[in-house]
From TrEMBL, chain A:
Name by which UniProt lists this protein: Anti-sigma-W factor RsiW
UniProt cross-references to Pfam families, sorted A to Z: zf-HC2 (PF13490)
Family: Belongs to the zinc-associated anti-sigma factor (ZAS) superfamily. Anti-sigma-W factor family.
InterPro entries tied to this protein: Anti_sigma_zinc_sf (IPR041916), Znf_put (IPR027383)
Keywords, comma-separated and alphabetical: Membrane, Transmembrane, Transmembrane helix
Annotated TM spans: 90-109
Keyword DNA-binding: no
Domain Putative zinc-finger, chain residue ranges per copy: 8-39
Superkingdom of the source species: Bacteria
TrEMBL record, chain B:
Start and end residues of each RNA polymerase sigma-70 region domain: 24-89
Membership in a protein family: Belongs to the sigma-70 factor family. ECF subfamily.
Protein name, entry field: RNA polymerase sigma factor SigW
Keyword Ligase in annotation: no
Residue ranges of the TM segments: none
GO biological process: DNA-templated transcription initiation
Lineage: Bacteria, Bacillati, Bacillota, Bacilli, Bacillales
């Protein structure tokens, strides 16, 4: 076999790969008919392939799939939340908006300063606002961080924030509201905002 | 099949982890077989093939869906096998101590370089003998022979899986065949 050219072995492999040219195939066949050593070599290669190919089909062990699924990283929740966010953009936007609004409103709420709506005939005594007897206040009264005593008349809404509303014989034509909880404060602000917003359309 | 696989891949990418189980179900046997033939050890084959699926899951977003999924998956598995073979070599003697556990026989513990006495080899069952001869091949020939003759993949696919030129794949298959022929002839 040592006398045979190396390209004969190359042709054998080309043949086994299934991409031999017709020309090479004819040369190979011709050579194999003449040379027993190369014929033997070719046989051995074919037998080798047949040997490897006779390997039994191997299948994965039982419960393989379950085991893989258990090994997967638990990224599911994160993805789930993202998915929920993507599906409900309006709720997310509303939530974010509400959060920021609450924050600004809360900063207002924690403002402990006393304030009152300016009306001409109100008496302010320390942190107590008095609507004197016999007087008629035209318009709304809002008292922050102080008390309100009404002895006269109010032709409008009365709102007391973080304080007490005291009335004996008062006449109030509008609504009376007392706010001293954080949540109520937020609710009030939100309501006020919505009302203002609605007014824009009504005008 | 590719259409189904791509559909499942899209579902997984959208966050549906369960859709991945169909992918595992489709490829588990082929992937396990490659690993088993490369490593010659059931437990390692199971561990590595599971790891290959986990890596495929984690890196699924990097898979180009215009390409063949099996090629990509097999590449992950063959790379993991080759890494394992290279790491295993120095501590082979420690491994040999665990022979005989859980259906493993001594042949499954043989490192590629190890040669058994002729007598022992001739008494082997055919299937053990095949695995023994495959595991004696150097790993660069082993991977191409396994992909070509056990998985029956085309040369082009093997070239894609192993990320090497077609010419290199052919050369390795030729040398692998010659190496196997010599191994079988020596007996």
């Amino acid at each position: 076999m040592s006398t045979c050219p190396q390209y004969i072995v190359d042709y054998m492999h080309e043949y086994l790969d299934g991409d031999i040219s017709r020309e090479h195939e004819q040369q190979l066949k011709k050579h194999l008919q003449e040379c027993t050593d190369c014929r033997q070599h070719m046989h051995e290669l074919s037998d080798t392939i047949a040997f490897v190919k006779s390997a039994a089909h191997i299948t994965a062990p039982p419960h393989f799939e379950d085991k893989v699924m258990k090994r997967l990283p638990k990224g599911k929740n994160r993805v789930g939340i993202q998915k929920w966010f993507r599906r409900h953009p309006i709720i997310v936007a509303a939530a974010v908006f509400f959060l920021f609004m609450s924050a600004t409103m809360l900063s207002n709420y924690s403002n402990e300063e006393f304030s009152v709506t300016k009306q001409p005939n109100l008496i302010v005594d320390g942190q107590t606002v008095i609507v004197p007897e016999g007087e008629v206040v035209k318009g709304d009264i809002i008292v922050k961080n102080g008390d309100l005593v009404i002895e006269g008349e109010v032709d409008g809404n009365v709102i007391v924030i973080n304080g007490e509303y005291m009335a004996s014989t008062a006449v109030v034509t509008g609504e009376i509201e007392e706010i001293d909880q954080v949540f109520e404060w937020i609710w009030y602000e939100t309501k006020a905002m919505v009302n203002n917003f609605m007014d824009l359309f009504e005008e | 099949m590719d259409a189904l696989v791509n559909k499942r891949i899209k579902q997984v990418l959208k966050g549906d982890q369960n859709a991945f189980s169909d992918i595992v179900s489709l490829y588990q046997h082929k992937l396990y077989q490659i690993c088993y033939r490369m490593l010659g050890n059931k437990q390692e084959a199971e561990d590595i093939s599971q790891e290959a699926f986990v890596r495929a899951y984690i890196n699924l977003h990097t898979f180009d869906q215009k390409r063949k999924f099996s090629t990509w998956l097999y590449r992950i598995a063959t790379n993991l096998c080759i890494d394992r073979i290279r790491k295993k070599k120095p501590d082979y003697y420690l491994d040999a101590e665990v022979a005989g556990t859980d259906g493993l026989n001594m042949y499954s513990q043989i490192a590629s370089s190890e040669q058994l006495p002729e007598e022992t080899v001739q008494q082997m069952e055919l299937q053990d003998r095949i695995q023994y001869e495959i595991s004696r091949l150097p790993d660069k020939y082993r991977s191409v022979i396994v992909l070509k003759y056990i998985e029956e993949l085309s040369l082009q696919e093997i070239s894609d899986i192993l990320d090497m030129p077609l010419g290199t794949v052919k050369t390795r298959i030729h040398r692998g065949r010659e190496a196997l022929r010599k191994q079988l002839n020596n007996l």
